[in-house]
C-alpha cells in the first residue's frame, strides 16, 4: 500500500506519505489497510482511494480503479498473483498489448515483472514463437527476448549490404555461367560466415533460411545512371576511357536483356533460382558447410530451407532435388550427417489452392502474409499504404490495414484452406506465418484456432507475440470448456465431444446400478431376454437423445418422452441431423447375433459329449447366495456414490454442466428429484406472495432511468395505436441477418426492408423459447411468461387460467383468432389456444393444400384464409386480434422450384444456406402479398402489424458463419447471431420508421404492443416478465434450453455460464468478441436467475381453469 498523506499538523503542502498516518493513527491505518485488501479481493484490481481523517474517523471519499503506467500495471498484476487474488491465467488475460510495447520502448532488456509474465505465458501457449532476422545480431536479440528459433532469415538482406552488393551485381551481370560462378565464389565465404553465426546464436533451435528472394530489378543498376555515365565518358577523348565505355555498353546491354515490364510479377524468388541455379547452389553450399562446422563445434544444428514464392508443385520438386543434391555433395565430402527440412513459402493464391500437391514435396509451409495479401487484394503494399489504405480505412471499405492485421475473411481463408489440404496429404506438416501481422493479437488468435504451429515476427515483437499466443490458448480453452465440455460412453462423446475420468466414473455408476437391479429382480430364466431387450431399448434411447442434443443443444430428460408423438410431424427436420457415427450405438446388437449363434453351437456340442463333471453342482446354492449378496452390495455402493454426485450437482444451474458431471442416467434421477422438490414447494406456495416477490425484484432493477426528481417517466407512445386492429405474424425460423442483406445483387427481404423504414424495427431482438419451440414463442408473445425449459408450455400449462393478451384485448371488445396450417394437436395447440383466450383457431382443415412443404399449405394460402376472416370482421365493425403462425420457412427449408424467387450463386448451391435463403425470401414475398391485400381491402390504415421470428433456423458452425460473411457481406457469428431474430411493429398511418437498438426478447413483445394499444399493464395489475422496449434504458433477460440456464443478454453482452458465473463466457453484442471482464455483469446474472425461478414458480401456481 503506497500513497500520499498530508497531516493537518504538518507544514502546508508537505506530503509525508502513509507512514505519517501509521505513526499518528495506527488504528485508522489498519482500517484503511483492511479496506484496501477487501476492495482488491472483490474487484481483482488495484484501487485508487481518496480518503480523509476527521475527528478520529476515517472517511473513504472516492474509490476508482487505479490508473497505472505499463510498468506499474504489470507489477500490480504479478503482485495480485502472489497474493492469491488472481491466477496466473487471469494475469495473462488482463495484459494489454500496449503494456508490453511501452515496456520495451523504455528498456532494451526485459524487466523482472515482464520476464515472469512471459515465463507464465510460455507455460500456457500452444504456438511456437519464432523471429524474422536479417543479421546475426538480430538473432541474438531475438533469443534474448524469448524467440524459440528463426522463422525467416531473409538472405537477400545479408547479400545486399553496401560491402557485398557490388559483388552480387557483378555476378548477375555476368555474360556466362562460368563468369557468374567466379563471382559467387567470392560471396560463398561471406554467406557461410553469416550462417555460422546464426547457427551459433540459435544453438538448439531451428533456423529457417529463405533462399534469395528479391525481384531481379533490385539487383540491377539504374539504366538512366548508366547512360549518363556513358555520355560523360564518351565526351572525353582519353584512350583509356574507351575500355570503360565498352564495359558500360556491355552492362547496359545486359541490363536491357534482363529488364522486365512487371518486375514484381517476373523473375524473382524460386524463378530466379530456376534461371540461375548456380546462385542457389552457392547459398546451399554455404548453409551445409556452416552446419557441418557448427556440428563439429558441438552445436545442435537443424537448418530449415525455405523455397520462396512457390506457385506450382513442380517448382518445389525441382528445388528440393537441388537442395538434396548439394546436401549429399557437401555432407558426403565432409563425412558428416545433418538433418534438414525443405519447405515452401506460400505467397500466391495458386499455391494455397494447390497446397495438397505442393505438400508432397514439402516438410513445412511458411505463409508469407505480406505477399499473399498483396496478391489477394491486387495491390502493392509500398504504394497503397501511402496513397490508399488510410483512405480505405476511413471510408470503412477496409476495417484495418490488412498488412498489419490479417485479413481473416480473405487471406485467412486461403491460409486455412492450404493448411487443411496440406495436412490431408501430410498430417504432421509443420506450418506457420511470417509477416508483420504475426505479432497482431487477433491474427495470432486466428493462427491458434486453425492449428498453425508457429508465428514468426520481428525480434522486438517476440514478447508481445508470446503473450498474445498464451491469451489465444486460454480463451480457446475457456470456450472449448464452456461450449464443448468433454466428458465414458459414446453418448458422452457426442454430447460433450470427448471423454474424461470423472465422466467415466459417473456414467459407470449409473449403468452398473441399472444392471445390478435387473440382476436382483429378474428371474433367472428371463434374464437373457430382459438384458437383450434392455440393451435394444437403451440403445434406442441413447440414439434419440443424441439427435435431440444435436438439434436443441440440450440434454433431454425423461419429460421429453412426452413429445415423442411430434416426431412424425418434423421428420423432414430430423433426417439431416443423423450422421453415420450415430449408428455406433447399435454395433453391439449387430455383433451379438453371430456371437449368440456361436455360443449356442458350442453349448449343443457340449451336450453331445459323454463327459460329465459330477462335482459341478457342489455348493452351487451357496455360491448363488454370495453372488446375490455381492450384487446387492455393489448396487448399494453405486447408489450411495451416485447420490453424493447428485447432491453436489444440485447447486449447478447449467444443465449441460450438471449432466456432464452426473452422467446421463444420474442426470435423469437428479431432474426427477429437483422436479419433485419444486412441486412440493409449489404445493405449499401462495401466488400472491410470489407476485409480491416478483414486483420487489423488478423494482430493484433500473429498466428505465428515473426523472431528475426521482419519479417514473411517463411512457412514450402510449395509445398511439389505440382502437386499431392487431395482426401478429410469427415467422418460422426467421433470423435477423437477412434483413437489409443482398445476395449477388438480389435483395433477400425487400418487403421487410421497406416495412422497417416506416416501422419500429428492433435490431437487437432475441429468441427465448424453451422445449416447445414455435409453440413456446406463441406462449411468450401472448403471456410474457418465461418457458420453464422442462416441458413445452403448451403441454405443461394449458390446463391453467393463463393471463394473456387475448384476454386483455377481450376486455376492450376484441375478437381473437389464430391461424396455423398444421394440425392443431401439434404441440397441444388445441389445448393452449383456449387457455390463452383465443375465441377461434383455424388449422389444417381450414386451408387448401397447395403442397408447399411437409406441413402442406403455403403462407400465401395461410394469409388468403386469414383475409377472408378479417374482412368479415371489418364488415361487422368488429375490432380483432389475428395471429398467424407461418410454416413455409420451416426446416428443412424446402421451396418448390416454381416458388423459388432468387438465383443462388454456385458457391452455396445445394447447401443448407441455399435452402434457407430461398425459404426466407419466399416468406418475405408472402408477407408482401398480405400487406397488399390489407391495403386493397381498406384494413391497412387501421391495423397495427407486428412481425417477429420464432427462433433460429441455421445451426452454429464455422461453415455457415463463413458462408454468410462471404456471400452476404454482413457481420455474423453463430454463437450470438443465430439467436438474433427480427421484431417490427407498424402502427396505423406511421410514415417514418425508427431503428431501436435496445436489446429485447420475446417476453417483451406483449408489453411493448399493449403500450401502443393504450392498455396499461400496471392498471390491469398484470404480472409480466417482459418490459416495454420503447420505454426502456437497460434490459437483462434470460435465454434457456438452447443455452444453459443462467444465460442472459443485457445491453452489452450475451453471457453463457459454466458451472456458475465465474467460469462463464461473455460475447460483445457489437463485436461478437469474447469479453474478459465479467464482474460488472454479475448482478444481471443473479437478477435474471432469480426472475426466471420466480416465473417458474408463478406459472405453476396459476389456478387451473374450468374444463
Automatic annotation (TrEMBL):
The UniProt GO MF terms for this protein read: pyruvate, phosphate dikinase activity
Keyword Endoplasmic reticulum tagged = no
The answer to keyword Transmembrane helix applying to this record is yes
**Matching InterPro entries, A to Z?**
Alkaline_phosphatase_core_sf, PEP_util_C, Pyruvate_phosphate_dikinase, Pyrv/PenolPyrv_kinase-like_dom, Pyrv_kinase-like_dom_sf, Sulfatase_N
One Pfam family recorded for the sequence: Sulfatase
Q: Which UniProt keywords apply?
A: Membrane, Transmembrane, Transmembrane helix
Residue ranges of domain Sulfatase N-terminal in the record: 725-1015
Q: Which CDD domains match?
A: LTA_synthase
Which residues span the membrane?
494-522, 529-548, 582-599, 625-647
Residue ranges of every copy of the PEP-utilising enzyme C-terminal domain listed in the record:
117-472
Q: Which domain of life is it from?
A: Eukaryota
Protein name stated in the entry: Uncharacterized protein
Amino acid at each position: 500500500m503506497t500513497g500520499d498523506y498530508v497531516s493537518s499538523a504538518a507544514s502546508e503542502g508537505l506530503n509525508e506519505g502513509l507512514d505519517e498516518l501509521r505513526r499518528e493513527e495506527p488504528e485508522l491505518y489498519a482500517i484503511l489497510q483492511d479496506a484496501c485488501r477487501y476492495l482488491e479481493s472483490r474487484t481483482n484490481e488495484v484501487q485508487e482511494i481518496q480518503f480523509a481523517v476527521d475527528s478520529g474517523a476515517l472517511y473513504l471519499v472516492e474509490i476508482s480503479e487505479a490508473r497505472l503506467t505499463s510498468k506499474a500495471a504489470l507489477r500490480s498484476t504479478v503482485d495480485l498473483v502472489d497474493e492469491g487474488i488472481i491466477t496466473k491465467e487471469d494475469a495473462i488475460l488482463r495484459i494489454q498489448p500496449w503494456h508490453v510495447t511501452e515496456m520495451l520502448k523504455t528498456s532494451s532488456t526485459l524487466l523482472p515483472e515482464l520476464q515472469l509474465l512471459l515465463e507464465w505465458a510460455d507455460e500456457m501457449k500452444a504456438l511456437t514463437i519464432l523471429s524474422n532476422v536479417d543479421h546475426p545480431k538480430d538473432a541474438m536479440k531475438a533469443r534474448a527476448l524469448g524467440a524459440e528459433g528463426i522463422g525467416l532469415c531473409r538472405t537477400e538482406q545479408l547479400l545486399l549490404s553496401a560491402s557485398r552488393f557490388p559483388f552480387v551485381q557483378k555476378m548477375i551481370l555476368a555474360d556466362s555461367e562460368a563468369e557468374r560462378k567466379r563471382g559467387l565464389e567470392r560471396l560463398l565465404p561471406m554467406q557461410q560466415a553469416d550462417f555460422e553465426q546464426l547457427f551459433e546464436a540459435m544453438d538448439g533451435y531451428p533456423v529457417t533460411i529463405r533462399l534469395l528472394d528479391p525481384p531481379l530489378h533490385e539487383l540491377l543498376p539504374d539504366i538512366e545512371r548508366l547512360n549518363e555515365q556513358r555520355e560523360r565518358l564518351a565526351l572525353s577523348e582519353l584512350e583509356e576511357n574507351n575500355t570503360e565505355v565498352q564495359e558500360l555498353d556491355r552492362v547496359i546491354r545486359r541490363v536491357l536483356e534482363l529488364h522486365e515490364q512487371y518486375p514484381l510479377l517476373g523473375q524473382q524468388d524460386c524463378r530466379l533460382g530456376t534461371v540461375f541455379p548456380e546462385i542457389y547452389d552457392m547459398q546451399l553450399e554455404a548453409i551445409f558447410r556452416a552446419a557441418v562446422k557448427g556440428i563439429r563445434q558441438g552445436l545442435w544444428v537443424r537448418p530449415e530451407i525455405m523455397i520462396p514464392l512457390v506457385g506450382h508443385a513442380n517448382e518445389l520438386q525441382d528445388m528440393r532435388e537441388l537442395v538434396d543434391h548439394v546436401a549429399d555433395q557437401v555432407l558426403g565430402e565432409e563425412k558428416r550427417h545433418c538433418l534438414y527440412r525443405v519447405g515452401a513459402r506460400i505467397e500466391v493464391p495458386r499455391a494455397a489452392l494447390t497446397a495438397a500437391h505442393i505438400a508432397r514435396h514439402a516438410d513445412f509451409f511458411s505463409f508469407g502474409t505480406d505477399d499473399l495479401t498483396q496478391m489477394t487484394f491486387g495491390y502493392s503494399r509500398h504504394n497503397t499504404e501511402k496513397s490508399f489504405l488510410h483512405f480505405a480505412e476511413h471510408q470503412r471499405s477496409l476495417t484495418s490495414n490488412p498488412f498489419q492485421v490479417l485479413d481473416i475473411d480473405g487471406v485467412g481463408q486461403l491460409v486455412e484452406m492450404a493448411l487443411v489440404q496440406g495436412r490431408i496429404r501430410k498430417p504432421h506438416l509443420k506450418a506457420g506465418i511470417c509477416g508483420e501481422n504475426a505479432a497482431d493479437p487477433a491474427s495470432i488468435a486466428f493462427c491458434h484456432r486453425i492449428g498453425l504451429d508457429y508465428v514468426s515476427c520481428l525480434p522486438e515483437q517476440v514478447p508481445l507475440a508470446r503473450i498474445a499466443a498464451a491469451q489465444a490458448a486460454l480463451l480457446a480453452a475457456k470456450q472449448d470448456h464452456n461450449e464443448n465440455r468433454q466428458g465414458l460412453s459414446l453418448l458422452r462423446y457426442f454430447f460433450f465431444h470427448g471423454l474424461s475420468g470423472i465422466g467415466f466414473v459417473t456414467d459407470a455408476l449409473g449403468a452398473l446400478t441399472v444392471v445390478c437391479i435387473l440382476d436382483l429382480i429378474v428371474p433367472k430364466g428371463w434374464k437373457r431376454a430382459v438384458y437383450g431387450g434392455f440393451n435394444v431399448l437403451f440403445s434406442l434411447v441413447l440414439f434419440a437423445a443424441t439427435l435431440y442434443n444435436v438439434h436443441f443443444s440440450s440434454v433431454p430428460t425423461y419429460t421429453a418422452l412426452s413429445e415423442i408423438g411430434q416426431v412424425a410431424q418434423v421428420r423432414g427436420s430430423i433426417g439431416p441431423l443423423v450422421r453415420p457415427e450415430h449408428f455406433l450405438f447399435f454395433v453391439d446388437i449387430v455383433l451379438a447375433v453371430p456371437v449368440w449363434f456361436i455360443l449356442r453351437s458350442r453349448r449343443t456340442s457340449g451336450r453331445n459329449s459323454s463327459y460329465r463333471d459330477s462335482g459341478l453342482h457342489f455348493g452351487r446354492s451357496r455360491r448363488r447366495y454370495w453372488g446375490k449378496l455381492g450384487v446387492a452390495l455393489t448396487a448399494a455402493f453405486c447408489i450411495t456414490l451416485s447420490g453424493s454426485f447428485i447432491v453436489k450437482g444440485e447447486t449447478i444451474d447449467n444443465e449441460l454442466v450438471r449432466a456432464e458431471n452426473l452422467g446421463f442416467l444420474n442426470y435423469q434421477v437428479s431432474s426427477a428429484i429437483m422436479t419433485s422438490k419444486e412441486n412440493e414447494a409449489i404445493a405449499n406456495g401462495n401466488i400472491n406472495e410470489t407476485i409480491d416477490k416478483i414486483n420487489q425484484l423488478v423494482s430493484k432493477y433500473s429498466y428505465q432511468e428515473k426523472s431528475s426528481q426521482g419519479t417514473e417517466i411517463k411512457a412514450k407512445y402510449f395509445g398511439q395505436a389505440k382502437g386499431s386492429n392487431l395482426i401478429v405474424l410469427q415467422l418460422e425460423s426467421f433470423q435477423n441477418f437477412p434483413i437489409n442483406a443482398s445476395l449477388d445483387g438480389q435483395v433477400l427481404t425487400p418487403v421487410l426492408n421497406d416495412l422497417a423504414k416506416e416501422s419500429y424495427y428492433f435490431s437487437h431482438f432475441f429468441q427465448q423459447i424453451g422445449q416447445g419451440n414455435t409453440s413456446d414463442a406463441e406462449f411468450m408473445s401472448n403471456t410474457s411468461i418465461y418457458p420453464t425449459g422442462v416441458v413445452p408450455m403448451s403441454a405443461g400449462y394449458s390446463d391453467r387460467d393463463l393471463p394473456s393478451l387475448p384476454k386483455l384485448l377481450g376486455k376492450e371488445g376484441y375478437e381473437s383468432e389464430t391461424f396455423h396450417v398444421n394440425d392443431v394437436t401439434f404441440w397441444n395447440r388445441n389445448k393452449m389456444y383456449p387457455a390463452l383466450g383465443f375465441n377461434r383457431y383455424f388449422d389444417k382443415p381450414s386451408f387448401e393444400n397447395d403442397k408447399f412443404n411437409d406441413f402442406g399449405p403455403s403462407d400465401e394460402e395461410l394469409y388468403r384464409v386469414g383475409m377472408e376472416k378479417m374482412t368479415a370482421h371489418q364488415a361487422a365493425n368488429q375490432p380483432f386480434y389475428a395471429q398467424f403462425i407461418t410454416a413455409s420457412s420451416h426446416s428443412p427449408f424446402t421451396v418448390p422450384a416454381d416458388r423459388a424467387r432468387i438465383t443462388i450463386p454456385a458457391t452455396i448451391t445445394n447447401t443448407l444456406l441455399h435452402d434457407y435463403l430461398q425459404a426466407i425470401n419466399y416468406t418475405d414475398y408472402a408477407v408482401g402479398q398480405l400487406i397488399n391485400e390489407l391495403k386493397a381491402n381498406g384494413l391497412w390504415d387501421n391495423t397495427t402489424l407486428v412481425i417477429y421470428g420464432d427462433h433460429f433456423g441455421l445451426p452454429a458452425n464455422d461453415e455457415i458463419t463463413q458462408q454468410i460473411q462471404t456471400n452476404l457481406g454482413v457481420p455474423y457469428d453463430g454463437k450470438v447471431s443465430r439467436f438474433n431474430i427480427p421484431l417490427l411493429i407498424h402502427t396505423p398511418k406511421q410514415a417514418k420508421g425508427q431503428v431501436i437498438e435496445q436489446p429485447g426478447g420475446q417476453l417483451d413483445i406483449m408489453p411493448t404492443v399493449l403500450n401502443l394499444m393504450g392498455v396499461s399493464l400496471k392498471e390491469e395489475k398484470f404480472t409480466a416478465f417482459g418490459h416495454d422496449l420503447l420505454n426502456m434504458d437497460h434490459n437483462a433477460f434470460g435465454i434457456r434450453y438452447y443455452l444453459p440456464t443462467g444465460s442472459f443478454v443485457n445491453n452489452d453482452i450475451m453471457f453463457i455460464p459454466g458451472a456458475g458465473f465465474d467460469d462463464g463466457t461473455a460475447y460483445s453484442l457489437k463485436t461478437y468478441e469474447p469479453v474478459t471482464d465479467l464482474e460488472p455483469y454479475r448482478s444481471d446474472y443473479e437478477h435474471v436467475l432469480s426472475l426466471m425461478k420466480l416465473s417458474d414458480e408463478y406459472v405453476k401456481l396459476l389456478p387451473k381453469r374450468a374444463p
